[in-house]
Automatic annotation (TrEMBL):
Name by which UniProt lists this protein: Dihydrolipoyl dehydrogenase
Disulfide bridge partners, by residue number: 66-71
Note: The active site is a redox-active disulfide bond.
Binding positions for NAD(+) per the UniProt entry: 205-212, 228, 298
Similarity comment: family membership: Belongs to the class-I pyridine nucleotide-disulfide oxidoreductase family.
Catalysis performed (reactions): N(6)-[(R)-dihydrolipoyl]-L-lysyl-[protein] + NAD(+) = N(6)-[(R)-lipoyl]-L-lysyl-[protein] + NADH + H(+)
Domain of life: Eukaryota
Protein backbone atom coordinates (compact mmCIF):
# COMPACT_ATOMS: atom_id res chain seq x y z
CA UNK A 1 0.00 0.00 0.00
CA UNK A 2 1.42 3.36 -0.97
CA UNK A 3 1.47 6.06 1.66
CA UNK A 4 1.41 8.94 -0.78
CA UNK A 5 -0.71 11.42 1.08
CA UNK A 6 -1.24 11.87 4.75
CA UNK A 7 -5.02 11.84 4.95
CA UNK A 8 -6.29 11.68 8.54
CA UNK A 9 -8.13 8.42 9.16
CA UNK A 10 -11.13 10.18 10.66
CA UNK A 11 -11.97 13.79 11.23
CA UNK A 12 -12.61 13.07 14.92
CA UNK A 13 -8.87 13.45 15.62
CA UNK A 14 -9.54 17.13 15.49
CA UNK A 15 -12.66 17.37 17.63
CA UNK A 16 -10.85 19.40 20.30
CA UNK A 17 -10.89 22.42 18.08
CA UNK A 18 -14.24 21.74 16.41
CA UNK A 19 -16.03 24.68 14.84
CA UNK A 20 -18.65 25.10 12.16
CA UNK A 21 -17.81 26.85 8.93
CA UNK A 22 -21.48 26.57 8.04
CA UNK A 23 -22.28 29.09 10.76
CA UNK A 24 -19.42 31.36 9.78
CA UNK A 25 -19.88 31.17 6.04
CA UNK A 26 -23.59 30.32 5.61
CA UNK A 27 -24.71 27.66 3.17
CA UNK A 28 -22.62 27.10 0.06
CA UNK A 29 -24.08 26.53 -3.38
CA UNK A 30 -21.11 24.31 -4.18
CA UNK A 31 -18.30 22.62 -2.28
CA UNK A 32 -15.58 21.17 -4.49
CA UNK A 33 -13.42 18.51 -2.82
CA UNK A 34 -9.94 18.63 -4.38
CA UNK A 35 -7.99 21.62 -5.69
CA UNK A 36 -6.41 20.08 -8.79
CA UNK A 37 -7.02 21.26 -12.38
CA UNK A 38 -10.53 19.79 -12.25
CA UNK A 39 -11.41 21.14 -8.81
CA UNK A 40 -9.94 24.63 -8.88
CA UNK A 41 -11.25 25.32 -12.39
CA UNK A 42 -14.73 24.16 -11.31
CA UNK A 43 -14.58 26.34 -8.19
CA UNK A 44 -13.50 29.44 -10.12
CA UNK A 45 -16.13 28.88 -12.82
CA UNK A 46 -18.86 28.40 -10.20
CA UNK A 47 -17.85 31.59 -8.39
CA UNK A 48 -17.84 33.47 -11.70
CA UNK A 49 -21.37 32.23 -12.34
CA UNK A 50 -22.45 33.72 -9.02
CA UNK A 51 -22.43 30.58 -6.87
CA UNK A 52 -21.17 30.72 -3.30
CA UNK A 53 -18.30 28.27 -3.58
CA UNK A 54 -15.63 26.58 -1.49
CA UNK A 55 -12.71 24.47 -2.68
CA UNK A 56 -11.34 22.02 -0.10
CA UNK A 57 -7.75 20.89 -0.63
CA UNK A 58 -5.69 18.81 1.78
CA UNK A 59 -2.15 18.81 0.34
CA UNK A 60 -1.37 22.34 1.51
CA UNK A 61 -1.14 23.86 -1.95
CA UNK A 62 -3.51 24.18 -4.87
CA UNK A 63 -3.04 22.74 -8.36
CA UNK A 64 -3.31 19.04 -7.49
CA UNK A 65 -1.12 16.37 -9.00
CA UNK A 66 -0.67 18.44 -12.14
CA UNK A 67 1.02 21.47 -10.62
CA UNK A 68 2.68 19.87 -7.61
CA UNK A 69 3.95 16.48 -8.77
CA UNK A 70 2.82 16.05 -12.38
CA UNK A 71 2.55 18.07 -15.57
CA UNK A 72 4.37 21.19 -14.41
CA UNK A 73 7.48 19.87 -12.60
CA UNK A 74 7.92 17.17 -15.26
CA UNK A 75 7.76 19.73 -18.08
CA UNK A 76 10.30 21.95 -16.32
CA UNK A 77 12.74 19.02 -16.07
CA UNK A 78 11.97 17.90 -19.63
CA UNK A 79 12.67 21.38 -20.98
CA UNK A 80 15.92 21.91 -19.12
CA UNK A 81 17.24 18.39 -19.67
CA UNK A 82 16.49 18.84 -23.39
CA UNK A 83 18.53 22.04 -23.46
CA UNK A 84 21.42 20.19 -21.82
CA UNK A 85 21.07 17.26 -24.22
CA UNK A 86 21.15 19.58 -27.24
CA UNK A 87 24.14 21.47 -25.85
CA UNK A 88 25.95 18.22 -25.11
CA UNK A 89 25.11 16.23 -28.24
CA UNK A 90 24.44 18.81 -30.93
CA UNK A 91 26.04 22.20 -30.28
CA UNK A 92 29.36 21.31 -31.91
CA UNK A 93 27.74 20.20 -35.17
CA UNK A 94 25.62 23.36 -35.09
CA UNK A 95 28.74 25.52 -34.89
CA UNK A 96 28.47 26.43 -31.23
CA UNK A 97 31.54 25.71 -29.12
CA UNK A 98 31.10 25.31 -25.38
CA UNK A 99 33.63 24.18 -22.82
CA UNK A 100 33.01 23.00 -19.28
CA UNK A 101 29.38 22.10 -19.89
CA UNK A 102 27.87 20.29 -16.92
CA UNK A 103 24.62 19.75 -15.09
CA UNK A 104 23.93 21.45 -11.76
CA UNK A 105 21.06 19.25 -10.62
CA UNK A 106 20.30 21.28 -7.49
CA UNK A 107 19.83 24.44 -9.58
CA UNK A 108 17.72 22.56 -12.13
CA UNK A 109 15.50 21.35 -9.29
CA UNK A 110 15.27 24.87 -7.84
CA UNK A 111 14.10 26.18 -11.19
CA UNK A 112 11.48 23.43 -11.30
CA UNK A 113 10.28 24.38 -7.81
CA UNK A 114 10.11 28.05 -8.79
CA UNK A 115 7.74 27.25 -11.66
CA UNK A 116 5.59 25.10 -9.36
CA UNK A 117 5.38 27.67 -6.55
CA UNK A 118 4.65 30.54 -8.93
CA UNK A 119 1.75 28.66 -10.47
CA UNK A 120 0.25 27.24 -7.26
CA UNK A 121 0.30 30.71 -5.66
CA UNK A 122 -1.30 32.07 -8.84
CA UNK A 123 -4.24 29.72 -8.39
CA UNK A 124 -4.66 30.76 -4.77
CA UNK A 125 -4.83 34.35 -6.01
CA UNK A 126 -7.41 33.42 -8.67
CA UNK A 127 -9.69 31.72 -6.14
CA UNK A 128 -9.48 34.79 -3.91
CA UNK A 129 -10.03 37.20 -6.79
CA UNK A 130 -13.15 35.30 -7.81
CA UNK A 131 -14.35 35.13 -4.20
CA UNK A 132 -14.25 31.34 -3.88
CA UNK A 133 -13.21 30.16 -0.40
CA UNK A 134 -10.07 28.03 -0.24
CA UNK A 135 -10.46 25.64 2.70
CA UNK A 136 -7.17 24.00 3.68
CA UNK A 137 -7.90 20.48 4.87
CA UNK A 138 -9.14 17.00 4.02
CA UNK A 139 -12.81 16.85 3.09
CA UNK A 140 -15.15 13.99 3.87
CA UNK A 141 -18.70 13.66 2.60
CA UNK A 142 -21.09 13.33 5.53
CA UNK A 143 -24.16 13.32 3.28
CA UNK A 144 -25.28 15.04 0.07
CA UNK A 145 -25.54 18.40 1.86
CA UNK A 146 -22.57 18.28 4.22
CA UNK A 147 -18.80 18.04 3.96
CA UNK A 148 -16.68 17.80 7.10
CA UNK A 149 -13.13 19.13 6.86
CA UNK A 150 -10.18 18.03 8.96
CA UNK A 151 -8.31 21.31 8.71
CA UNK A 152 -4.53 21.38 8.26
CA UNK A 153 -4.49 23.72 11.28
CA UNK A 154 -5.98 20.99 13.49
CA UNK A 155 -9.55 22.27 13.48
CA UNK A 156 -12.60 20.43 12.19
CA UNK A 157 -15.38 22.20 10.39
CA UNK A 158 -18.59 21.30 8.60
CA UNK A 159 -19.58 22.91 5.33
CA UNK A 160 -23.28 22.93 4.45
CA UNK A 161 -23.86 22.93 0.73
CA UNK A 162 -26.46 22.44 -1.99
CA UNK A 163 -24.00 20.67 -4.32
CA UNK A 164 -20.78 18.70 -4.00
CA UNK A 165 -18.25 18.01 -6.74
CA UNK A 166 -15.74 15.24 -6.04
CA UNK A 167 -12.45 16.15 -7.75
CA UNK A 168 -10.02 14.14 -5.65
CA UNK A 169 -7.88 12.94 -8.54
CA UNK A 170 -5.57 9.95 -8.62
CA UNK A 171 -2.35 8.48 -7.25
CA UNK A 172 0.31 6.12 -8.68
CA UNK A 173 -0.84 2.49 -8.85
CA UNK A 174 1.14 0.16 -6.59
CA UNK A 175 2.65 -3.11 -7.83
CA UNK A 176 2.99 -6.23 -5.66
CA UNK A 177 6.65 -7.07 -5.12
CA UNK A 178 7.81 -3.48 -5.62
CA UNK A 179 8.03 -1.52 -2.38
CA UNK A 180 8.23 2.23 -2.90
CA UNK A 181 10.66 4.25 -0.74
CA UNK A 182 10.74 7.33 -3.03
CA UNK A 183 14.57 7.23 -2.84
CA UNK A 184 15.77 4.29 -4.94
CA UNK A 185 12.41 2.71 -5.77
CA UNK A 186 10.34 5.68 -6.76
CA UNK A 187 6.99 6.67 -8.26
CA UNK A 188 6.80 9.67 -10.59
CA UNK A 189 6.78 11.86 -7.47
CA UNK A 190 10.21 10.63 -6.34
CA UNK A 191 11.55 10.65 -9.91
CA UNK A 192 10.86 14.40 -10.05
CA UNK A 193 13.12 15.06 -7.08
CA UNK A 194 16.10 12.67 -7.22
CA UNK A 195 19.06 14.17 -5.41
CA UNK A 196 21.65 12.84 -7.82
CA UNK A 197 21.71 11.55 -11.36
CA UNK A 198 21.50 7.75 -11.18
CA UNK A 199 24.10 5.89 -13.21
CA UNK A 200 21.47 3.35 -14.17
CA UNK A 201 17.70 3.28 -14.05
CA UNK A 202 14.87 0.90 -14.85
CA UNK A 203 11.51 2.35 -15.74
CA UNK A 204 8.69 -0.13 -15.14
CA UNK A 205 5.99 0.73 -17.68
CA UNK A 206 6.34 2.24 -21.15
CA UNK A 207 3.43 4.68 -20.86
CA UNK A 208 3.47 8.46 -21.10
CA UNK A 209 4.80 9.25 -17.61
CA UNK A 210 7.52 6.58 -17.71
CA UNK A 211 8.76 7.68 -21.12
CA UNK A 212 8.80 11.37 -20.16
CA UNK A 213 10.66 10.88 -16.89
CA UNK A 214 12.85 8.16 -18.41
CA UNK A 215 13.80 10.74 -21.06
CA UNK A 216 14.72 13.32 -18.44
CA UNK A 217 17.18 11.03 -16.67
CA UNK A 218 18.54 9.50 -19.90
CA UNK A 219 19.37 12.99 -21.18
CA UNK A 220 21.09 13.83 -17.91
CA UNK A 221 23.29 10.73 -18.25
CA UNK A 222 21.50 7.71 -16.75
CA UNK A 223 21.67 4.41 -18.57
CA UNK A 224 17.94 3.82 -18.77
CA UNK A 225 15.96 0.70 -19.64
CA UNK A 226 12.21 0.70 -20.01
CA UNK A 227 10.64 -2.64 -19.08
CA UNK A 228 7.18 -3.02 -20.61
CA UNK A 229 4.79 -5.97 -20.35
CA UNK A 230 3.21 -5.33 -23.77
CA UNK A 231 5.03 -5.65 -27.08
CA UNK A 232 4.78 -1.91 -27.79
CA UNK A 233 5.27 1.35 -25.90
CA UNK A 234 2.92 4.32 -25.49
CA UNK A 235 -0.40 2.68 -24.65
CA UNK A 236 -3.19 4.27 -26.71
CA UNK A 237 -0.88 5.51 -29.47
CA UNK A 238 -1.34 4.60 -33.11
CA UNK A 239 0.72 1.44 -33.68
CA UNK A 240 2.81 2.94 -36.55
CA UNK A 241 3.60 5.98 -34.44
CA UNK A 242 4.54 3.85 -31.42
CA UNK A 243 7.14 1.97 -33.49
CA UNK A 244 8.63 5.18 -34.89
CA UNK A 245 8.62 6.78 -31.45
CA UNK A 246 10.51 3.85 -29.95
CA UNK A 247 13.17 4.18 -32.66
CA UNK A 248 13.67 7.89 -31.94
CA UNK A 249 14.04 7.20 -28.22
CA UNK A 250 16.52 4.41 -28.93
CA UNK A 251 18.59 6.89 -30.95
CA UNK A 252 18.72 8.96 -27.76
CA UNK A 253 20.21 5.97 -25.89
CA UNK A 254 17.03 4.78 -24.16
CA UNK A 255 16.86 0.97 -24.02
CA UNK A 256 13.73 -1.16 -24.16
CA UNK A 257 12.80 -4.58 -22.87
CA UNK A 258 9.34 -5.16 -24.33
CA UNK A 259 7.16 -8.20 -23.73
CA UNK A 260 8.77 -8.43 -20.31
CA UNK A 261 7.14 -8.89 -16.94
CA UNK A 262 8.56 -7.50 -13.70
CA UNK A 263 8.36 -9.99 -10.85
CA UNK A 264 9.91 -7.91 -8.07
CA UNK A 265 12.20 -4.98 -7.33
CA UNK A 266 14.09 -5.03 -4.04
CA UNK A 267 16.83 -2.90 -2.54
CA UNK A 268 20.01 -4.96 -2.01
CA UNK A 269 22.74 -4.68 0.63
CA UNK A 270 24.79 -2.36 -1.60
CA UNK A 271 21.87 0.11 -1.77
CA UNK A 272 21.13 -0.74 -5.41
CA UNK A 273 17.94 -2.36 -6.66
CA UNK A 274 17.62 -5.92 -7.94
CA UNK A 275 14.84 -6.19 -10.48
CA UNK A 276 13.67 -9.69 -11.36
CA UNK A 277 12.06 -9.97 -14.78
CA UNK A 278 10.83 -12.70 -17.10
CA UNK A 279 9.31 -12.76 -20.60
CA UNK A 280 5.57 -11.86 -20.44
CA UNK A 281 4.74 -15.10 -22.24
CA UNK A 282 6.86 -17.11 -19.81
CA UNK A 283 10.53 -18.12 -19.89
CA UNK A 284 13.70 -17.85 -17.85
CA UNK A 285 13.98 -15.18 -15.19
CA UNK A 286 16.87 -12.73 -14.99
CA UNK A 287 17.94 -10.16 -12.42
CA UNK A 288 18.88 -6.65 -13.48
CA UNK A 289 20.66 -4.45 -10.95
CA UNK A 290 20.31 -0.68 -11.16
CA UNK A 291 20.64 2.45 -9.02
CA UNK A 292 17.03 3.58 -9.28
CA UNK A 293 13.74 1.99 -10.30
CA UNK A 294 10.82 4.13 -11.42
CA UNK A 295 7.45 2.42 -11.06
CA UNK A 296 5.06 3.96 -13.58
CA UNK A 297 2.44 1.41 -14.48
CA UNK A 298 -0.48 3.82 -14.33
CA UNK A 299 -2.57 5.67 -11.80
CA UNK A 300 -5.65 4.80 -9.78
CA UNK A 301 -8.47 6.99 -8.47
CA UNK A 302 -7.91 8.57 -5.07
CA UNK A 303 -10.92 8.33 -2.76
CA UNK A 304 -9.28 7.48 0.54
CA UNK A 305 -11.36 8.50 3.59
CA UNK A 306 -13.74 10.49 1.41
CA UNK A 307 -16.81 8.87 2.98
CA UNK A 308 -18.12 7.46 -0.31
CA UNK A 309 -19.38 4.26 1.34
CA UNK A 310 -21.37 6.05 3.99
CA UNK A 311 -22.77 8.56 1.53
CA UNK A 312 -23.75 5.66 -0.77
CA UNK A 313 -21.75 6.92 -3.79
CA UNK A 314 -21.13 4.11 -6.28
CA UNK A 315 -17.67 3.24 -7.57
CA UNK A 316 -16.81 0.78 -10.36
CA UNK A 317 -14.47 -2.22 -10.21
CA UNK A 318 -11.46 0.09 -10.72
CA UNK A 319 -12.47 2.33 -7.81
CA UNK A 320 -13.62 5.15 -10.12
CA UNK A 321 -16.67 7.16 -9.08
CA UNK A 322 -19.52 6.26 -11.42
CA UNK A 323 -21.16 9.24 -13.15
CA UNK A 324 -23.57 9.95 -15.99
CA UNK A 325 -22.88 12.39 -18.85
CA UNK A 326 -23.76 15.33 -16.57
CA UNK A 327 -21.18 14.07 -14.04
CA UNK A 328 -23.97 13.17 -11.59
CA UNK A 329 -23.24 10.27 -9.25
CA UNK A 330 -26.06 8.00 -8.10
CA UNK A 331 -26.57 10.31 -5.08
CA UNK A 332 -28.53 13.48 -5.94
CA UNK A 333 -26.46 16.63 -5.30
CA UNK A 334 -23.09 14.88 -5.67
CA UNK A 335 -21.13 15.00 -8.93
CA UNK A 336 -17.59 13.89 -9.79
CA UNK A 337 -15.01 14.92 -12.39
CA UNK A 338 -11.41 14.38 -13.48
CA UNK A 339 -9.04 11.53 -12.73
CA UNK A 340 -11.40 10.10 -10.12
CA UNK A 341 -13.94 9.15 -12.83
CA UNK A 342 -13.57 7.15 -16.06
CA UNK A 343 -11.69 8.49 -19.08
CA UNK A 344 -8.15 9.59 -19.86
CA UNK A 345 -6.23 10.88 -16.85
CA UNK A 346 -5.30 14.27 -18.25
CA UNK A 347 -5.33 17.72 -16.69
CA UNK A 348 -7.19 19.35 -19.58
CA UNK A 349 -9.85 16.60 -19.52
CA UNK A 350 -10.39 17.33 -15.79
CA UNK A 351 -10.65 21.06 -16.53
CA UNK A 352 -13.22 20.56 -19.30
CA UNK A 353 -15.28 18.35 -17.00
CA UNK A 354 -15.00 20.85 -14.14
CA UNK A 355 -16.46 23.62 -16.25
CA UNK A 356 -19.16 21.40 -17.78
CA UNK A 357 -20.21 20.01 -14.36
CA UNK A 358 -20.68 23.54 -13.01
CA UNK A 359 -22.61 24.58 -16.13
CA UNK A 360 -24.89 21.56 -15.70
CA UNK A 361 -25.53 22.61 -12.09
CA UNK A 362 -26.19 26.22 -13.03
CA UNK A 363 -28.12 25.90 -16.30
CA UNK A 364 -28.68 22.22 -17.02
CA UNK A 365 -26.39 22.39 -20.09
CA UNK A 366 -22.72 21.52 -20.49
CA UNK A 367 -20.35 20.17 -23.13
CA UNK A 368 -17.32 17.90 -23.27
CA UNK A 369 -16.34 16.36 -26.62
CA UNK A 370 -14.37 13.26 -25.71
CA UNK A 371 -13.40 12.76 -29.39
CA UNK A 372 -11.49 16.00 -29.25
CA UNK A 373 -9.26 15.54 -26.21
CA UNK A 374 -5.61 15.62 -27.26
CA UNK A 375 -2.81 13.55 -25.74
CA UNK A 376 0.77 14.76 -25.73
CA UNK A 377 4.06 13.13 -24.74
CA UNK A 378 6.55 15.92 -24.07
CA UNK A 379 9.68 14.08 -25.10
CA UNK A 380 11.80 15.30 -27.98
CA UNK A 381 10.51 14.96 -30.57
CA UNK A 382 7.08 15.34 -29.02
CA UNK A 383 4.27 12.93 -29.75
CA UNK A 384 0.68 14.14 -29.96
CA UNK A 385 -2.58 12.68 -31.10
CA UNK A 386 -6.31 13.26 -31.08
CA UNK A 387 -9.33 11.27 -32.25
CA UNK A 388 -9.18 7.74 -33.59
CA UNK A 389 -6.04 5.75 -34.31
CA UNK A 390 -6.00 3.28 -37.18
CA UNK A 391 -6.78 0.23 -35.03
CA UNK A 392 -9.76 2.04 -33.48
CA UNK A 393 -11.07 3.10 -36.91
CA UNK A 394 -10.77 -0.52 -38.06
CA UNK A 395 -12.46 -1.86 -34.93
CA UNK A 396 -15.40 0.49 -35.57
CA UNK A 397 -15.68 -0.91 -39.09
CA UNK A 398 -15.06 2.52 -40.63
CA UNK A 399 -13.89 3.07 -44.21
CA UNK A 400 -11.05 5.55 -44.02
CA UNK A 401 -8.16 7.20 -45.87
CA UNK A 402 -4.69 7.72 -44.44
CA UNK A 403 -2.36 10.53 -45.48
CA UNK A 404 1.15 11.03 -44.13
CA UNK A 405 3.89 13.63 -44.40
CA UNK A 406 7.40 13.32 -42.93
CA UNK A 407 9.16 16.22 -41.21
CA UNK A 408 12.24 15.38 -43.31
CA UNK A 409 10.38 17.11 -46.19
CA UNK A 410 9.43 20.18 -44.14
CA UNK A 411 11.61 23.23 -44.74
CA UNK A 412 11.43 24.64 -41.20
CA UNK A 413 12.34 21.28 -39.65
CA UNK A 414 15.30 21.10 -42.06
CA UNK A 415 16.53 24.58 -41.09
CA UNK A 416 16.32 23.53 -37.45
CA UNK A 417 18.09 20.25 -38.25
CA UNK A 418 15.31 18.64 -36.25
CA UNK A 419 13.44 16.59 -38.81
CA UNK A 420 12.72 13.28 -37.06
CA UNK A 421 9.05 12.36 -37.17
CA UNK A 422 5.97 12.29 -39.28
CA UNK A 423 2.29 13.23 -39.39
CA UNK A 424 -0.51 10.78 -40.06
CA UNK A 425 -4.08 11.88 -40.75
CA UNK A 426 -7.03 9.50 -40.77
CA UNK A 427 -10.17 10.73 -42.53
CA UNK A 428 -13.54 9.22 -43.35
CA UNK A 429 -13.45 7.68 -46.84
CA UNK A 430 -16.88 9.00 -47.87
CA UNK A 431 -17.04 12.42 -46.24
CA UNK A 432 -13.29 13.20 -45.87
CA UNK A 433 -14.05 14.34 -42.29
CA UNK A 434 -10.93 14.12 -40.11
CA UNK A 435 -11.27 11.23 -37.66
CA UNK A 436 -7.82 11.29 -36.11
CA UNK A 437 -4.43 13.01 -36.29
CA UNK A 438 -1.12 11.59 -35.06
CA UNK A 439 2.09 13.59 -34.94
CA UNK A 440 5.66 12.80 -33.95
CA UNK A 441 7.91 15.77 -34.43
CA UNK A 442 9.22 19.05 -33.07
CA UNK A 443 6.37 21.12 -31.61
CA UNK A 444 3.81 18.30 -32.02
CA UNK A 445 2.15 19.30 -28.73
CA UNK A 446 1.37 22.77 -30.08
CA UNK A 447 0.50 21.60 -33.58
CA UNK A 448 -2.11 19.14 -32.33
CA UNK A 449 -4.33 22.12 -31.42
CA UNK A 450 -5.03 22.58 -35.12
CA UNK A 451 -6.23 18.98 -35.37
CA UNK A 452 -8.34 19.34 -32.21
CA UNK A 453 -10.01 22.42 -33.67
CA UNK A 454 -10.57 20.57 -36.95
CA UNK A 455 -12.24 17.66 -35.16
CA UNK A 456 -14.30 19.97 -32.92
CA UNK A 457 -15.58 21.83 -35.99
CA UNK A 458 -16.04 18.67 -38.07
CA UNK A 459 -13.46 19.79 -40.67
CA UNK A 460 -12.43 17.65 -43.64
CA UNK A 461 -8.84 17.10 -44.71
CA UNK A 462 -9.69 19.30 -47.71
CA UNK A 463 -10.61 22.16 -45.35
CA UNK A 464 -7.11 22.09 -43.85
CA UNK A 465 -5.41 21.43 -47.21
CA UNK A 466 -7.05 24.60 -48.55
CA UNK A 467 -6.12 26.70 -45.50
CA UNK A 468 -3.05 28.92 -46.00
CA UNK A 469 -0.21 28.16 -43.56
CA UNK A 470 2.78 30.49 -43.10
CA UNK A 471 6.09 29.53 -44.69
CA UNK A 472 8.46 28.26 -43.43
CA UNK A 473 6.67 26.73 -40.44
CA UNK A 474 6.35 23.25 -38.98
CA UNK A 475 2.58 23.57 -39.36
CA UNK A 476 3.01 23.38 -43.14
CA UNK A 477 3.72 19.69 -42.55
CA UNK A 478 0.23 19.38 -41.06
CA UNK A 479 -1.28 21.00 -44.14
CA UNK A 480 0.79 18.69 -46.38
CA UNK A 481 -0.40 15.60 -44.49
CA UNK A 482 -3.98 16.78 -44.98
CA UNK A 483 -3.26 17.31 -48.70
CA UNK A 484 -1.96 13.74 -48.91
CA UNK A 485 -5.17 12.57 -47.24
CA UNK A 486 -7.39 14.70 -49.46
CA UNK A 487 -5.54 13.39 -52.57
CA UNK A 488 -6.92 9.96 -51.68
CA UNK A 489 -10.43 11.31 -51.15
CA UNK A 490 -10.90 13.11 -54.48
CA UNK A 491 -12.45 11.29 -57.38
CA UNK A 492 -12.30 13.56 -60.44
C1 LIG B 1 4.43 12.93 -13.61
C2 LIG B 1 3.11 13.30 -14.20
C3 LIG B 1 3.08 14.06 -15.35
C4 LIG B 1 1.86 14.42 -15.90
N1 LIG B 1 1.86 15.18 -17.03
C5 LIG B 1 0.69 15.55 -17.58
C6 LIG B 1 0.67 16.38 -18.71
O1 LIG B 1 1.70 16.78 -19.23
N2 LIG B 1 -0.53 16.74 -19.22
C7 LIG B 1 -1.70 16.31 -18.66
O2 LIG B 1 -2.77 16.67 -19.17
N3 LIG B 1 -1.72 15.52 -17.57
C8 LIG B 1 -0.55 15.14 -17.02
N4 LIG B 1 -0.55 14.37 -15.88
C9 LIG B 1 -1.87 13.94 -15.33
C10 LIG B 1 -2.51 15.10 -14.55
O3 LIG B 1 -1.64 15.51 -13.53
C11 LIG B 1 -3.83 14.66 -13.97
O4 LIG B 1 -4.63 14.12 -15.01
C12 LIG B 1 -4.56 15.83 -13.35
O5 LIG B 1 -3.81 16.40 -12.33
C13 LIG B 1 -5.92 15.38 -12.80
O6 LIG B 1 -6.56 16.46 -12.25
P1 LIG B 1 -7.66 16.28 -11.11
O7 LIG B 1 -8.09 17.65 -10.72
O8 LIG B 1 -8.69 15.33 -11.58
O9 LIG B 1 -6.91 15.57 -9.91
P2 LIG B 1 -5.57 15.91 -9.13
O10 LIG B 1 -4.71 16.83 -9.91
O11 LIG B 1 -5.00 14.62 -8.68
O12 LIG B 1 -6.06 16.76 -7.90
C14 LIG B 1 -6.81 16.21 -6.87
C15 LIG B 1 -6.54 16.98 -5.61
O13 LIG B 1 -7.47 16.59 -4.63
C16 LIG B 1 -6.86 16.56 -3.37
N5 LIG B 1 -7.64 15.69 -2.51
C17 LIG B 1 -7.81 14.36 -2.62
N6 LIG B 1 -8.67 13.91 -1.66
C18 LIG B 1 -9.02 15.00 -0.94
C19 LIG B 1 -9.86 15.20 0.16
N7 LIG B 1 -10.55 14.21 0.72
N8 LIG B 1 -9.97 16.45 0.66
C20 LIG B 1 -9.29 17.49 0.12
N9 LIG B 1 -8.47 17.36 -0.94
C21 LIG B 1 -8.35 16.13 -1.46
C22 LIG B 1 -5.47 16.03 -3.65
O14 LIG B 1 -4.56 16.39 -2.64
C23 LIG B 1 -5.17 16.69 -4.99
O15 LIG B 1 -4.45 17.89 -4.82
C24 LIG B 1 0.64 14.01 -15.29
C25 LIG B 1 0.67 13.26 -14.12
C26 LIG B 1 1.89 12.91 -13.58
C27 LIG B 1 1.90 12.11 -12.31
Amino acid sequence: MLALRKVPATTSTFTAARRSMATAAGQYDLVVIGGGPGGYVAAIKAAQLGMKTACVEGRGSLGGTCLNVGCIPSKSLLHNSHLYHVAHEEFTKRGIEVTGLKVNLATMMKQKEKSVTGLTKGIEFLLKKNKADYIKGWGKIVNAGEVSVAGLDGTTSTLKTKNIIIATGSEPSPFPGVEIDEKVIVTSTGALSLEKIPESMIVIGGGVIGLELGSVWTRLGSKTTVVEYADAIGAGMDADMAKLFQKTLQKQHMNFKLGTKVISAKKNAAGKVDVVVEPSKGGPRETLTVDVVLLSIGRRPFTQNLGLDKAGVKVDNKGRVVTDHEFKTNVPGIRAIGDVIAGPMLAHKSEEEGIAAVEYIKSGHGHVNYNAIPSVIYTHPEVAWVGLNEAEAKAKGLQYNVGTFPFSANSRAKTMDDADGTIKIISDKKTDKILGAHIIGPGAGEMIAEAVLAIEYGASSEDIARTCHAHPTLSEAFKEACMATYDKAIHF
